[in-house]
TrEMBL record:
<dbReference type="InterPro" id="IPR002121">
    <property type="entry name" value="HRDC_dom"/>
</dbReference>
<dbReference type="Pfam" id="PF00570">
    <property type="entry name" value="HRDC"/>
</dbReference>
<dbReference type="InterPro" id="IPR051086">
    <property type="entry name" value="RNase_D-like"/>
</dbReference>
<dbReference type="InterPro" id="IPR012337">
    <property type="entry name" value="RNaseH-like_sf"/>
</dbReference>
<feature type="domain" description="3'-5' exonuclease">
    <location>
        <begin position="26"/>
        <end position="198"/>
    </location>
</feature>
<dbReference type="InterPro" id="IPR041605">
    <property type="entry name" value="Exo_C"/>
</dbReference>
<dbReference type="InterPro" id="IPR036397">
    <property type="entry name" value="RNaseH_sf"/>
</dbReference>
<protein>
    <submittedName>
        <fullName>Ribonuclease D</fullName>
    </submittedName>
</protein>
<feature type="region of interest" description="Disordered">
    <location>
        <begin position="1"/>
        <end position="27"/>
    </location>
</feature>
<dbReference type="Pfam" id="PF18305">
    <property type="entry name" value="DNA_pol_A_exoN"/>
</dbReference>
<dbReference type="InterPro" id="IPR002562">
    <property type="entry name" value="3'-5'_exonuclease_dom"/>
</dbReference>
<dbReference type="InterPro" id="IPR044876">
    <property type="entry name" value="HRDC_dom_sf"/>
</dbReference>
<dbReference type="Pfam" id="PF01612">
    <property type="entry name" value="DNA_pol_A_exo1"/>
</dbReference>
<dbReference type="InterPro" id="IPR010997">
    <property type="entry name" value="HRDC-like_sf"/>
</dbReference>
<feature type="compositionally biased region" description="Pro residues">
    <location>
        <begin position="1"/>
        <end position="18"/>
    </location>
</feature>
Length: 424
């Protein structure tokens, strides 16, 4: 008699869509009296504080917050408009709000995206919990807020306003509902993730990562030495004069974007700038005329055409440069070359890289982690390029500590990579 067939696993229930905040859409806090009431309510609340920000990435130059969402048990959700509190200054000062919640744990999702804009208005945490980073440490396949809420709580949130222009005023009601929902379930999500971290033996790792985020929350964002070299298609520009044209046009666009507070790509696209560099290559001169410039796609956009004199001035500056002032074909920076070029430039480093990278990737897989969360790619490259003179475990541990690796990372990585760093 054959064994009975095992019934298939039941199909999981579909996530429950949540489109409206449980307590309704809160009013926007945009007056001093309303802010004072919000501070009083948050002070009277209990437990951790959920926060989020909405920016205008792709629309504005400056990455400031145009809405700050705050929620705490016993207090409800508050939607704060920082723009209303600027009072002629470039940034609002919400440090009084921080005083009401500084002693509590702040819960954010993808904190590195929100912390710079929160710091600009005087909101810096003393403790935090990052649900996105925690999801990565758990090795979850999807760590977006919506995916985590579906997995943890069986609910789904609409994300259709995530890429909206949040500098719009007044903010539409549907956008405000979306913003309020982003913090409504963060406390419950945090509790679920903490239990998962503890069960996986990774809670101490997460605590070290969160402490590291807090320690660097007020740091200035890193700016590349030559950001113009990120222009798409730059590899096709062959002459130093063409590169100079790209540099001057990029700088002129960036200056204008700051003045107008517009995303640079909405003024003039990168491809148009590199096409101008190619035109300089062909003409063997950066003194491109108005007619030539207008034949390049992008320079006839409405906003770009309004500032045509700036582009012509930029090209004139590039044309007037001496040979010694022209940019080199390759960037002269302290950044390491890409590992694919190491075999020629530093064969010993290339050999070390081929030994330690697979080992670290295998260790990450064993620990259920993305490799970049086990050890930053930059730290791994620098270790391979220039290992410490002392390649004992103690020496490698000190080297990785200097590269900002956390203790839990070093405890896992050092025993694996130290034996592989010796060239003997």
């Amino acid at each position: 008699m054959s064994a009975p067939e095992t019934p298939p696993d039941p199909t999981p229930d579909p996530p429950r869509p949540v489109t409206v905040p449980a307590d309704g859409i809160p009013p926007v806090v945009d007056t001093p009296d309303a802010l004072a009431r919000t501070i009083d309510r948050l002070t009277a609340g209990t437990g951790p504080v959920a926060l989020d920000t909405e920016r205008a990435h792709g629309f504005r130059y400056w990455p400031k917050a145009y809405l700050i969402q705050v929620r705490r048990a016993g207090s409800g959700t508050h939607l704060i408009d920082p723009v209303a509190f600027e009072a002629g200054a470039p940034r609002a000062d919400l440090s009084a709000l921080r005083a009401a919640i500084a002693d509590e744990e702040w819960i954010l999702h993808a904190a590195t995206q929100d912390l710079p804009s929160l710091a600009e208005v005087g909101l810096l945490p003393e403790r935090l919990f990052d649900t996105e980073l925690a999801g990565r440490l758990l090795g979850l396949p999807r760590v977006a807020l919506g995916a985590l809420l579906e997995r943890a709580l069986g609910v789904s949130l609409a994300k259709e306003h995530s890429a909206s222009d949040w500098s719009t005023r007044p903010l539409p009601e549907a956008w405000l509902a979306y913003a309020a929902l982003d913090v409504e379930l963060l406390v419950e999500l945090r509790d679920w993730i903490e239990a998962e971290l503890e069960a996986a033996g990774k809670l101490a790792w997460a605590e070290q990562e969160f402490a590291h985020l807090v320690a660097h929350a007020g740091d200035e964002p890193h700016r590349r030495a030559e950001p113009w070299r990120r222009c798409s298609g730059l590899h096709a520009v062959r002459t130093p004069r063409g590169l100079a044209a790209v540099r001057e046009l990029w700088t002129a666009r960036d200056t204008l974007a700051q003045e107008l507070d517009r995303a640079p790509g909405r003024i003039l696209g990168d491809s148009s700038i590199t096409d101008a560099g190619l035109a300089v290559d062909a003409a063997k001169s950066a003194a491109l005329g108005r007619d030539t410039l207008r034949r390049i796609h992008g320079f006839t956009w409405r906003l770009a055409k309004r500032y045509e004199s700036r582009w012509l001035d930029a090209l004139s500056r590039a044309d007037a440069l001496s040979a010694a002032e022209l940019p080199p074909r390759r960037a002269a920076s302290g950044d390491l070359p890409q590992p694919r070029s190491w075999a020629r430039a530093n064969p010993e480093a290339a050999a070390r890289w081929e030994r330690i990278r697979p080992a670290v990737n295998a260790l990450a897989e064993q620990q259920g982690l993305p490799p970049e969360n086990l050890l930053s790619p930059d730290a791994l490259r620098r270790l391979a390029w220039a290992p410490p003179a002392d390649v004992s475990e103690a020496g490698v541990d000190a080297a990785l500590a200097a590269l900002d690796a956390r203790p839990w990372q070093r405890g896992l990585v050092v025993p694996v990579v130290a034996p592989l760093l010796s060239d003997a």
